[in-house]
Amino acid sequence: MNQNNEMPIGLAMELAKNSKAMEQFSSLSKSEQNSVIEHARHVHSQKEMQNFISTFLLFDRYS
Q: Given 5, 21, 27, 53, which residue has the most CB atoms within 10 angstroms?
């Protein structure tokens, strides 16, 4: 599998711990999901990822 198509493990773990975030992520279009994944690739710590997921939940759509 091409690494560019893979979800970062930190994002996957945080989504697995937060059903609301997982539901919201799943409802996004493929393009929107790819934008979230690309942003998550630039997160460097668990705390940053938790903050990213919290912020993500505040919006109906990631932009």
A: 53
